[in-house]
Design goal:
By secondary structure, the protein is of the alpha+beta class. It has helices at 21-37, 75-82, 92-99, 101-110, 123-127, 160-168, 209-212, 214-217, 232-248, 283-290, 295-309; strands spanning 10-15, 43-48, 61-64, 118-122, 138-141, 152-154, 173-178, 183-190, 193-202, 222-225, 254-261, 267-273.
């Protein structure tokens, strides 16, 4: 089956073992409700806890909304393909490259995508007391986490050792980036087409898990302006940078590209999310709404585009 029909048997996969489990479940339940409201008669949900999900028999499309580890890093995609299930979103290779910021940055740099200057350190280097050559102001983060988990913004060099030690607890590699001051923007892309730019304005601190999902984590929240209040030229510049990154990393179906825009109009691509949030407060649905695409329509389009690719079957 490569055509989406009202009786297509869809299983929405959510949860997972990563730090974004709660957000994934919230996204998944919203998608389930929307698909049912849109007239799909065979929609089920599966909260995944391990790396061997029990997909319901007869499932024709797995709607993958597991953010972060296992769902967004290529592992689930490989499992589904090995077991003959079609699924939504990016494939194995794209997922692996986009989830690992070390790999994605190498690809973006090779394709001349504008991105912050960076350095990779190892856990052993940090343990020996070595410091990066990129100094404050800078950003220290784990390369394989999402939703700003483990991110430290460093304004003074004396803050570096503690930040490096913390990030080293997430994995073998530590990513250090130069700090870019600018508007925090994101560009949703559906089937290769950029949607309206969203301007993210945290009410306190920076755009971490607490300010992304205050209802779940008790933060102050953020304000969003969509379409962002940019000139036509600035909008085109930001969208062009996002599309360039999207193409360089060969993203399939949809994604969301985070971009910083400096006061002098230079865009810097930070990362690409191949399974962006789909909660009521998430950025992809906000951007789609500004383009005249309802939440339910967005869910359906993602399923329709994905099923046409028929990976895994």
């Amino acid at each position: 089956m490569t055509q989406l029909q009202s009786d297509t048997k869809i299983c929405v996969l959510m949860g997972g073992p990563g730090s974004e489990r709660d957000v994934s479940i919230a996204s998944g339940k919203g998608i389930c409700e929307s698909l049912k409201e849109a007239g799909f008669s065979q929609v089920s949900e599966l909260i995944i806890n391990d790396d061997s999900p029990k997909i319901p028999q007869g499932t024709q499309l797995c709607y993958n909304i597991i953010h972060g580890t296992f769902g967004e890093d290529g592992q689930l995609q490989r499992y589904l393909e090995d077991h003959g299930y079609a699924y939504t979103g990016a494939g194995i290779s794209c997922s692996e490259n986009c989830f690992d910021k070390v790999l994605s940055k190498r690809i973006m740099h090779a394709a001349a995508v504008p991105a912050p200057r960076d350095q990779i350190m190892t856990r052993a280097q940090v343990a020996s007391g070595e410091l990066p050559h990129i100094t404050a102001p800078c950003v220290v983060k784990p390369p394989r986490e999402g939703s700003s988990v483990g991110v430290h913004i460093i304004y003074k060099d004396e803050q570096l050792p503690a930040a490096l030690a913390d990030v080293a607890s997430y994995g073998e590699e530590i990513l250090i980036e130069e700090y870019i001051k600018g508007k925090e923007l994101t560009v949703a892309i559906l089937d290769g087409v950029a949607m309206p730019v969203v301007h993210i304005i945290p009410r306190d601190g920076y755009y971490d898990m607490r300010n992304k999902y205050p209802a779940l984590y008790g933060g102050s929240g953020s304000d969003y302006v969509c379409p962002a209040e940019l000139s036509d030229e600035q909008t085109a510049t930001v969208q062009a940078a996002a599309i360039k990154a999207y193409k360089a990393l060969k993203v399939e179906v949809y994604g969301r590209v985070d971009v910083l825009l400096t006061d002098d109009g230079r865009p810097y691509v930070l990362e690409i999310n191949t399974i962006p949030g789909m909660t009521a407060s998430s950025l992809l649905p906000k951007s789609a709404a500004a383009a005249g695409i309802s939440y339910a329509q967005l869910c359906c389009r993602i399923a329709k585009i994905s099923l046409k690719q028929a990976r895994g079957i």
